[in-house]
């Protein structure tokens, strides 16, 4: 009987995905190449489950049950033998993913979805060795996977739309907010928007208009405060498309339109200033703590998830009256 969700790769992403699968009530098998790695992955998944329960994102009963639903394996074929859905979360290497997908495609019944958590590769390319690419799809969870609600469900050139919709609907039951991306383009959906923000942010710093800290503050304390419940297209409708058009025609001619990385970023890399891992990038990390900043980020995400959940419940209650 096919009842398990199988997560192949138990690192930072795989463990978070496994936690969400188990919290949704699925028997979940974490798979990795070594026993020590997969056991460490299970520990991380349990930590994710307990954090969500402590923060009120899941009730205690869900958390206790989820811990009992987590299993581990170092045998991909054996684990896949009971899979009703497989999510790959291994190293971001095209050849490695292609080989794994070819293997899974060969051993799994054709109705079992094979998903990839890739953030940058095309599912069309990943599934190119498969005999049944129609059952392959990207499920791009955003880091941290156990907190950020977004999952981008990306259809490849040969993905069956009904299967993609089925996967999307499955992820809704995982307390996720999945979006269906109908074309397999670089950057998927959200990263295309994010890269546009990053490009302009770097250009602003490079031009001397503002410091990196002021750019981040302007985004974090401005537009980002609205984004959990107020996307840019809803904003345009609210202010009026005529006003939005006028602003665009004024501002867009002066916005960066480079089709390659900014020279300012290239110079930082050339000088060995790679960010946290070298101690300096846009910020001087000898004077800051990335652990503290990450903890603040995660707590903000938790509070945002709680707030949007309350708003959704209030809206649903109003509609039902």
TrEMBL record:
An individual GO BP term: fatty acid beta-oxidation
Taxonomy, superkingdom: Bacteria
Entries under InterPro entries matching the protein: 3-OHacyl-CoA_DH, 3-OHacyl-CoA_DH_NAD-bd, 3HC_DH_C, 6-PGluconate_DH-like_C_sf, 6PGD_dom2, NAD(P)-bd_dom_sf
Record key words, sorted: Oxidoreductase
Metabolic or biological pathway, per its Swiss-Prot or TrEMBL entry: Lipid metabolism; butanoate metabolism
UniProt site positions, description: Important for catalytic activity: 140
Pfam family, one: 3HCDH_N
Keyword Glycoprotein: no
Keyword Ion transport on entry: no
Segments traversing the membrane: none
Domain 3-hydroxyacyl-CoA dehydrogenase C-terminal, residue spans: 189-285
Ranges of residues in domain 3-hydroxyacyl-CoA dehydrogenase NAD binding: 4-183
GO molecular function list: 3-hydroxybutyryl-CoA dehydrogenase activity; NAD+ binding
Family: Belongs to the 3-hydroxyacyl-CoA dehydrogenase family.
Full protein name: 3-hydroxybutyryl-CoA epimerase
Organism this protein belongs to: [Clostridium] clostridioforme 90A6
């Amino acid at each position: 009987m096919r009842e398990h969700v199988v997560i192949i790769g138990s690192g930072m992403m795989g463990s978070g995905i496994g936690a969400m699968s188990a919290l949704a009530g699925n028997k979940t098998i974490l798979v990795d190449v070594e026993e020590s790695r997969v056991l460490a992955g299970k520990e991380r998944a349990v930590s994710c489950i307990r954090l969500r329960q402590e923060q009120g994102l899941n009730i205690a009963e869900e958390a206790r049950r989820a811990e009992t639903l987590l299993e581990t394996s170092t045998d991909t074929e054996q684990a896949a033998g009971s899979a009703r859905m497989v999510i790959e979360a291994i190293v971001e290497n095209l050849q490695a993913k292609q080989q794994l997908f070819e293997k899974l495609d060969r051993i799994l019944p054709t109705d079992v979805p094979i998903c990839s958590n890739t953030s940058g590769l095309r599912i069309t390319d990943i599934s190119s060795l498969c005999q049944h690419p129609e059952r392959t799809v990207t499920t791009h969870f955003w880091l941290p996977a156990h907190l950020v609600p977004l999952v981008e469900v990306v259809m490849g050139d040969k993905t069956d739309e009904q299967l993609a919709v089925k996967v999307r609907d499955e992820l809704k039951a995982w307390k996720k907010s999945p979006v269906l991306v109908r074309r397999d383009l670089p950057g998927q959906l959200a990263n295309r928007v994010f890269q546009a923000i990053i490009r302009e942010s770097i250009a602003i710093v490079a031009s001397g208009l503002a410091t990196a800290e002021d750019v981040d503050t302007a985004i974090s304390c401005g537009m980002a405060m609205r984004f959990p419940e107020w996307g840019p297209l809803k904003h345009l409708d609210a202010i009026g498309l005529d006003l939005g058009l006028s602003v665009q025609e004024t501002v867009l001619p002066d916005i960066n339109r480079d089709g390659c990385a900014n020279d300012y970023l290239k110079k930082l890399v050339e000088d060995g200033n790679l960010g946290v891992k070298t101690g300096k990038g846009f910020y001087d990390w000898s004077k800051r703590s990335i652990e503290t900043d990450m903890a603040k980020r995660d707590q903000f995400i938790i509070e945002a998830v709680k707030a949007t959940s309350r708003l959704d419940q209030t809206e649903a209650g109003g509609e039902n009256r």
